[in-house]
Design goal:
Elements (H helix, E strand, L loop, with lengths): L1 H4 L2 H29 L11 H13 L4 H16 L5 H33 L8 H29 L8 H32 L4 H9 L14 H32 L8 H33 L10 H96 L3 H12 L1
């Protein structure tokens, strides 16, 4: 019995440890978000903890939902607790528990719907799957979270029922934005690490060099050129790209110039050169710059109306996220199609080679059969001539034997004279 239970214990401990780690990450990210991206009205336009929760569920499964429940409870307990008395503390805990349950249910629902519709495929390699991820995991799941969470706050008297719609929309948009910018990072890097079991510099070089790497095979004989190329792809190019992003972000959000969408070409550059992991990471950086600047009253998204500012900010985040995810999925589909095409050409070449060998063998067999046939035909002709000659001789003998004796004598006498 002990031998049967021993494999289960490490697995259970692994699940418990994973849930605790997720809860800590959820709580810490919530505190960082409140500190860096909280408006004077105590509104957080982006809620990254929900992105961490959705990514963890999609990567590890529904069992890690316990970590989502615990992390959400801790993050909201310290925000909504009432330490006046023990009774008030217990009462203030009830809506927090309801918010945690709603967050967990919404996260699990989004993960379930995505897995069901994509047949457990990686959801960021196809354009159709990207839209399924954005709609089902990014929009449908947070609707459960916002509905349950705002209802719990309204029932506890922390939010008036008349403001239910406005609070619900702000809550939902913040969760959607968190999933849009954080979950793709976890999914893309998880997929990248799973596919590439090489050292870190090889992983970065493989992700950076797409099909252009195949055109650089002529420098493989030079180790110095290879080291220089790897250094450029791993260090120099991302550093240059990061510097341009920071420079444009500073000018756009700090200098008063409306150049926010000039960051999109930088993200497109990262998509082509750094692959999906690098592009999602840069998307997160750009979104973080935009959020922090907006909540501090800087940039072109700031207006006197808080809701209008948030809508403009969320529109920017949605545009860059959708653009990069669709672009990287298109690149992945193209790469897969090119790989399948190369395999098909290789298979066709092998088939043609096999077919040529078979045609050559068949031709030799036909030549041998043709030679045999010609020999057989010649033999038949000779046999037929022999048969005709024999038949003529036999006919002549029969005709000679059938003549009367007198006719023979006369014929001989005539021939003698």
């Amino acid at each position: 019995m002990i031998q049967q239970k021993s494999p289960i214990l490490p697995h259970a401990l692994k699940q418990i440890g994973g849930s605790v780690v997720l809860a800590i990450a959820y709580y810490e990210m919530a505190e960082i978000s409140r500190y860096l991206a909280s408006t004077p009205q105590n509104v957080t336009p982006v809620w990254p903890p929900d992105g961490i929760a959705a990514g963890a569920v999609l990567l590890f499964g529904n069992w890690i939902g316990y970590g989502v429940l615990l992390g959400s409870f801790l993050a909201n307990f310290w925000a909504f607790r009432d330490p006046t008395s023990f009774l008030s503390l217990v009462i203030s805990t009830l809506p927090v528990l309801g918010i945690a349950i709603g967050t967990t249910l919404g996260t699990l629902l989004g993960g379930f719907l995505l897995r069901k519709t994509t047949n457990l495929r990686y959801p960021l390699e196809r354009v159709t799957d990207v839209f399924k991820f954005l709609i089902l995991t990014g929009m449908v799941g947070p609707s459960i979270n916002a509905t349950v969470g705002v209802a719990c706050l309204a029932l506890s008297g922390k939010v008036p029922w008349i403001a239910y719609g406005t609070v619900w929309l702000t809550w939902w948009i913040s969760n959607v934005s968190g999933i849009f910018i954080v979950t793709p990072i976890l999914l893309s890097w998880g997929q990248f690490i799973q596919k590439n079991q090489h050292p870190i510099w090889q992983r970065l070089s493989l992700s950076s060099m797409s099909e252009d790497c195949e055109n650089l095979s002529y420098i493989r004989h030079s180790r110095a050129d290879l080291r220089r190329l790897r250094f450029w792809l791993i260090v120099v190019e991302p550093v240059i790209l990061m510097g341009l992003v920071i420079l444009i972000g500073k000018v756009a959000f700090g200098g008063g110039y409306h150049l926010e969408y000039m960051l999109i070409p930088m993200l497109i550059w990262s998509a082509f050169r750094l692959g999906q992991p690098g592009a999602t990471l840069f998307t997160f950086i750009v979104a973080a710059i935009a959020v922090i600047a907006t909540v501090n009253g800087k940039g072109g998204f700031v207006s006197q109306d808080l809701n209008q500012s948030l809508i403009q900010l969320q529109s920017f985040i949605g545009v860059i996220t959708l653009t990069i995810l669709v672009l990287t999925a298109t690149i992945a589909e193209r790469t897969q199609a090119e790989t399948k095409l190369r395999l098909a050409f290789a298979e066709l070449a092998r088939t043609n080679e096999t077919l040529e060998v078979r045609v050559q063998q068949r031709t030799e067999e036909l030549n041998e059969k043709n030679t045999t046939f010609q020999q057989t035909l010649q033999t038949l002709k000779q046999t037929q001539l022999q048969m005709l000659h024999s038949e003529k001789c036999l006919h002549w003998d029969r005709w000679w034997q059938g003549l009367p004796m007198k006719s023979i004598t006369r014929l001989v006498s005539f021939m003698a004279t």
